[in-house]
Design brief:
Layout lengths: L5 H23 L10 H21 L5 H5 L7 H12 L9 H9 L3 H10 L1 H6 L6 H8 L1 H17 L10 H21 L14 H22 L8 H20 L1 H10 L1 H23 L1 H9 L13 H16 L6
Helix pairs in contact: 1-2, 2-11, 9-10, 9-11, 10-11
Amino acid sequence: MPIITASIDTFLITAAAVTAGTYYLFFRRTQANSQSPYRNALTIFVILHTLYIIYVSTIRSPPNLFRSLGIPLNTSAQKIRSKILDSAGLQPNATLPRPLETLLTRLSSFDGRNVYVRFGQSVIQDCEYCRTLEHYALFALPRPLLQYVREAAVVGLITTRDSHRSRWRTLGIALLMVAGLLEAYCLMSANITMPRNGKGTLYWADACWFARQFLFAVLPIVIHSLPSSPPLNSLTGMLQTKGTLDTALQRVMMLKYIRGAIARDPALRESSTQWWERQKTVGEWAREDEIVQKTAEKLGNGFVEGMGEAKLLPKLRAIAEAVIPKVDPKPTT
């Protein structure tokens, strides 16, 4: 027997399970190194956001008259009215609220039930001016669109620069955009079928709504669980660049010793000679290609003097003149 109601019991049990699991995942297994100073605050925010999504999914799910009354989709409007009055304990001649009267009037046609399956009960009973499928689609658009925008803001908050997860922001936003476009495509292009007994019909509006809430609940948890990458400050980056350049310079300075060592070994000398000959042949092929010559000339790096100003050759000569004295300095007397 439920303690309060079935939906509230489901919310409490699910919320307790999610809170316990998230606490173990984010607090007990958190590594001290490379973690954002705001990680605990963001973790609490993710937990609260997940509890809100669970609350919406279990307590404030969209209404569905057919599922609530346990009747098939092809039930006549008159029988639906009788079922509503009987469930509410009202007289058979009682007047229903205006939204329900509008809903029953529109459910008298197959087009109305088609819209009901695609966009849900709230859209068909709240839109007074809607007449065509496009009208209902425009009326139904703002609510899910705002939900996707809200979720994009949540993803942006948990992937700020201080969270050390900014590299996952683009992936999260792209996933939300793809999900939104896929939902719109499914609702507009779904093939609505109604069996003779009216049972087994897939309510696309409800299915897309629950899939959307599931994505909203899981996506922040997944992004918050992905590996972090602390941003490098400018000083650290400059020191790393300096170290890389120093290592490259030392290797360049070692070329003259390596060249001498290679020349003393017959096998290495033969391999080196073959490699340089092969590179010379490949270079000649590339330089003799007309397409390569024209492309280099257009980019301002022409190397053929007959085609115009050879701008690349002076640059190469200047680089060679600057590097060769350092790599192979002339002996002093």
